[in-house]
Amino acid sequence: MIVILLIMGYKLSSKIRWELEHTLNAYLEKIVQDYASSDKPLSVEYNPFVCSGVSDYKCVSKNIALIDTDSHQEILKVTDLTLKVDNITTSSVRVLIKSPKLTFDGLDKKIKENQNDEVFQIYKVFRPDSFVCSEEDKILDKKDGKISSHNQCKITANKANYSYSIVANVKSPKLSEKTILNAMISYYANFISPQKFSEEIDDFDFALENISFSFESKELKSVLYPIFESDYNANKSGKKNPFNDILYEKGLQNLKELVGFGLGVTGMLEGPYENALINLVEGLHSMAIDKAIGVKVVLMPKKIPTPYFKIHPSILLNIDKSSAQQRILAKLFNTYDLKVETILNQNEE
Fold first, then answer.
1. d(C-alpha 165, C-alpha 212), whole Å
2. What's the CA angle centered on 46, arms 80 and 100, to 5 degrees?
3. Cβ atoms of 291 and 344 closer than 8 Å
4. Element (H, E) at 344
């Protein structure tokens, strides 16, 4: 009896492992085909995912690269992209996806050729080097196909960190009466293309509980200071004073006022997020003078519990058009409050 159960368990695990590997590689192959036409500026090359494991699963693609069609140079390369699926029960699962090395050789070359050295140095400081993302999914109601999902990522750069977190619920009759792993494989299989997802989207309802994005750096002043100094020295005719912190902060203040003017002219300070945008500018200014190490932007629902909503297929198919983007923004304005937090330097607390 024990042997039979072990054989059945192994066959089930092999089936899940195959479905996981097939879904990942089908998604990559679809991307390759979408970029395959000669008029596309970019193409995609990859090593297929290979999955292993019996109760927990690990899938690895050695390389995924975005290629410039004309020069055949790698614009972006993701090395050892690893997906781990563990902590599996019938109702919950955790997924980890990471890459220890991101390279941008082609993009580095283009920026270096087309921009001055100051711009290239800023780009190098904030260019991502690696990332680690995780997602925890849990069945809330198996009969209704209701699942909660917490997705978070940390992206590491030379002298900065970026992170985001999304807490959301999704429900669909297509997810009902399934184990969490089968439900999520079924759900993400729809992401193979916008066209496929748009055909299935009417069957899904979504609720976003919380969205946050943060940017942290203890080196913003060290990056900006030489740029302001270089600009000051280039226009130094008739000036006797050497560049110093006072002149740096004066330059920052002028830049902050210019940004505020730009936001006002474009009408962005007339909407419901006026205070949040002002706080964001103030937070970045505090980072630039070493009074803060980061800013965090949070979207929070105006109503609790968060209402579910549907995504119209036309929005997915026209996401690059202003009309679809305006509909998304209108939905955000009506449903969510925007809050900006400044993460102070410990010496300033």
1. 5
2. 20
3. yes
4. strand 336-344
Q: Dump the DSSP string for 122-155.
A: HHHHHSEEEEEEEEEEEEEETTTTEEEEEEEEEE
Question: DSSP class of residue 219?
Answer: -
Question: Six-digit token pair at 299?
Answer: 């979207």
Q: Which helix (H) or strand (E) holds 68?
A: strand 57-68
pLDDT digits (tens, 9 = 90+) for 135-183: 999 999 999 999 999 999 999 999 999 999 999 999 999 999 988 888 8
- What are 139's two structure tokens? 């069945």
For the stretch 173-205, pLDDT in tens is 999 998 888 888 778 777 666 677 777 888 899
71/266 Cα distance (integer angstroms): 38
Query: How many C-beta neighbours within 10 Å does residue 268 have?
Result: 12
C-beta of residue 76 within 8 angstroms of C-beta of residue 68 = no
